[in-house]
Write the C-alpha cells for this entry.
Amino acid sequence: MERTLILFKPDAIQRGLVGEILSVFEKKGFKIVGTKMLKMTPELAKRHYAHLVDKPFYPDLERFMTSQPIIAMVIEGVDVVSVVRDIVGATNARQAAPGTIRARFSNSVSRNVIHASDSVETAKKEIANFFSEEELFDYELVLKPFFYAGDEE
Ligand code: IDP
Ligand code: MG
C-alpha cells in the first residue's frame, strides 16, 4: 500500500469544494489515514515547494498558499500516488484532461484547487513535512475486500 499527500488549497476551501473533491477519492476506494487544517507558513511553503523557489511565480504561490487555511490529508491505496495524480490532472487546469479534478473545478495554472505528490519518494518527504507518525493512523477498511481482490494489495 502506498500513501500520498493531498492539500486542499485556499481556493478549494473558499469555494466550498472540499467535500466534492474528497468524495472522489473516498468513492475511488482510498483510505484517509490522516488530516488536519493548518495555515501554511512561509518556511513550510519554501520546504514544500523547494523545487520552485527560484521561479518568477514563486512569490505569488507562497502568498496564495499562506493567505488562508489549507487542509492537508494523507490517503492510502494501491498505486495511490500515480492514480491520484492522474485524477487531479495537469498543473494548468486549462490543459487538464476532461474529467480530472482540475479540469472540472479550475481554469487556472495557479488557482488549481489541489496539490498531490508526484512520486512515491516525493510523497514520503511531503508527508513528513506535514504529519508526525502519531498523526497518521493504521487501521483496516472493513470494506477493503469490496475495493480490491486479495492479489492486488
Ligand atoms: P503540480 O501542482 O501540478 O505538481 P508544480 O509544477 O509542482 O505542479 O507546481 C506547484 C504549484 O505551483 C502548482 O500547482 C501551481 O499552483 C503553481 N505553479 C506551477 N507552475 C506555475 C506557473 O507557470 N505559473 C503560476 N503558478 C504555477
Ligand atoms: Mg508538484
About this structure: Residues 2-39+70-131 form a domain with the Alpha-Beta Plaits fold (CATH 3.30.70.141). The first strand starts at residue 2 and ends at 8. Strands lie at 2-8, 31-38, 70-77, 114-116. Residues 40 and 74 are 16 Å apart (CA to CA).
